[in-house]
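Entry type: protein chain
Record version: 2
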Amino acid sequence: MKNLSLSILALSLTLISTSAQAAVFNVNGTDYDITTIDGSYNELFSQLSNQVWFNDENLAQDFAATVQLSLGDPYPNSDGSFLGILFANANSRVSLFKNTDKTTLSASISSINEYTWAIAEKVDTEINQGQSVPEPLTILGAGTAILFGTRFKQKLNQSKTKKQKN
C-alpha cells in the first residue's frame, strides 16, 4: 500500500511539474496544435520539411507572428530583446518573432547548430469538440480519492476481523 501511495504521488508531481511547450493557435482561420522540439536543422529535416509553412516563407512569418513568444523565448538577443522559436523554411532559412518591435524576421541559420523549432499539427475541430482532458490536479484528486477509499476499506475490514476474533 505504501508503494502504491508513493507511485501515485510521484505520478501526480510529474504531471503537475511538466511544462509542455505546446498550445493551439489559429493561423489564417485554421487551428494548429503547435509544440517545440530541439535539435539541428539537419537532424530534424524530415520533421521540419513536413511542416505546412516549410515551402512558404510568408506563411512561416504568419505562424511566427501568431505564436510570438507564447512557447518560450529561447534566444536572448544582444540588444536585450528576445527571439521566439524557429519556423523552418527550405534552404536552412527560418522565420521567427522579435519581441521589441513585434516583427517577424527571416534569416539563414547554420544547419548543424541546435535550435528550438516549431512543429504543428492541424487540429480536427469536429473530433475535438466536447472532448475534455482532465487537468493534472483533477487526476491527482481522483488518485487521492481512490487511495483513501482503498485505505479506508482495508481499515474497515481489519476492524471487522478484530471484532469477529473477540
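Comment: DSSP finds five helices and eight strands in the chain.
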